[in-house]
Amino acid sequence: MYLTRVFCVLAALTGVSSAGHTASKKTCIVPAGGSNATDDAPAIYRAFRKCGRGGKVVFEPTTYHVNSVLNISWLQDVDIDIGGTLLWSTDIQYWLNNSLDVGYQNQSTALILGGNNVRIDGHGVGTFDGNGDYWYEWIREQPNTSNYPGRPHAVTFNGLTNSVVQGVNFLRSQMWTMSIIYSHHVLFESVFVNNTGNRVSSSNTDGADTIRSSHIKFNNFTVYNGDDSISFKANSTDITVTNSHFHNGLGIAVGSIGQYKGQFETVERIHVDNIEYDNTLHSVYFKTWTADQNGYPPNGGGGGLGFASDMVFRNLQARNLRGSAFAISQCTRFSGAPGDGNCTNSKFEIRDLTVKNLTGTTTSSRVASLQCSAVAPCTNIGLLDVDLTFTNGTAADEYLCGNVKDPRGFECTGPVCEGGSATGEC
């Protein structure tokens, strides 16, 4: 008997499927090897080859040891039922040398999933466990702790369309949790991310990053991490985030963007509603590179063009914000990036955005820290119905501005600091 064999059975499924038709589906139940001595990735791959088009792939309530990369990008009209845990190996050198290209910022990933009409359901128990404690300890000892080459994202949804990902948990992701690229019309429902290290904490553990994607919806998205709760990067359009909860990270990020010299990129039509923040640095912040190119991605760059516009962030409830509630830095500098640059020369424009009904508590006196470009000033920026207080009830009342034209709903109270930043403020 071969433990890596995929047992395929025909299951007569009654009723109407998510695609709206009655059908019999081929079902592949993925066997688990039972220990980390057996790499379950080949069995997983074969299951998707057999049942990834018009079928169903089932992960049983057990642990699957994933010791090698997986590129599963041809899916079509498939149900993926995850009842157990996919646990990635701790062979750091293997992943550094073999992780797969994401297609953006020279980033890489351990798993690629893509296709059309894909329905992934973890039923609240299905888990992707990146074994990140080993990564978090290892990266602290490296000279480059930001974007170390080959450090993989947990999963990249590449070319995923007309699909649903629901009820899935991500624990201790190796780096970013989900990079979502070239994907359109996808719902992420009731997804839980906890990248809190058991022994040490780590940066660059984003909850999700959208890239060159549109019509992406996040609902009931919960993130515990040490970096961006969620980030909208280059050519992210028509993104919705609702009824979500963000803990301990940096908050909602737009960017970084403008990293590729001469490339025109946009972030447009972002709608965020009913978000709870607990101990995050910001509620919302923007980060763009300067007009000067210093090095190359992932830890260098600059000189990009474009704009971010048509964004509404409303009904934001905060508890113990650690920095300015709303921040803009157009002088992004990651750790290890050369040079300080000119913090007011970015050609990337930020315009037409509103933050409305932002309430709660903060430890910072700065409601806003808006360091915009002198070349392309921020325009039509609104902060409306803001009520942020310290725990003693005193109101936070600083609105620091640089190159902000005709603000709506607030008056600038002083100048903003100018300096390199990857997290929204000097």
From TrEMBL:
Pfam family, one: Glyco_hydro_28
Signal peptide coordinates: 1-19
GO molecular function terms attached to this record: polygalacturonase activity
Keyword annotations from UniProtKB, A to Z: Cell wall biogenesis/degradation, Glycoprotein, Glycosidase, Hydrolase, Repeat, Secreted, Signal
Gene Ontology biological process terms in this record: cell wall organization; pectin catabolic process
Cellular-component GO terms for this entry: extracellular region
Main localization, broad class: secreted
Entry's localization field: Secreted
SMART domains xrefs: PbH1 (SM00710)
Family per record: Belongs to the glycosyl hydrolase 28 family.
Protein name: Uncharacterized protein
Organism the protein comes from: Aspergillus nanangensis
Top-level taxonomy: Eukaryota, Fungi, Dikarya, Ascomycota, Pezizomycotina
